[in-house]
Design goal:
The protein is of the alpha+beta class. It contains four helices and three strands; from the N terminus they run ααβααββ. It has a three-stranded antiparallel β-sheet with strand order 1-3-2, with helices on one face.
Length: 94
């Protein structure tokens, strides 16, 4: 669990992410390793946090990847995510 990454995801502005994107990213960040920023939650868990279907969660994950907030790595049946692949943003609020 990474509280730092969770807070960084929660701190993103509405100009950066939609509310559903924020919830999905917060779940992925919450499950991430502090050092590698790698996370492996299932789409079911992401969907549960965001309150959406698994199909919608998959769409949201790809939107986050397209925006550069998430990197997705698929190997056979396993999917992993790297949160903030270009570096963790500074917190706006303290």
């Amino acid at each position: 669990m990474s509280v730092h990454l969770l807070f960084a995801a929660a701190d993103l502005s509405p100009r950066q992410v939609t509310p559903l994107q924020k919830l999905a990213l917060m779940k992925i960040a919450d499950s991430a390793d502090d050092q590698t920023r790698i996370s492996t939650p299932t789409l079911q868990r992401i969907a549960s946090w965001a309150g959406v279907s698994e199909n919608q969660a998959d769409e949201i994950v790809w939107e986050l990847a397209e925006s550069g907030l998430l990197a997705v790595d698929r190997h056979e049946d396993e999917v992993s995510y790297r949160v903030f692949p270009d570096g963790v943003p500074s917190l706006r609020h303290r």
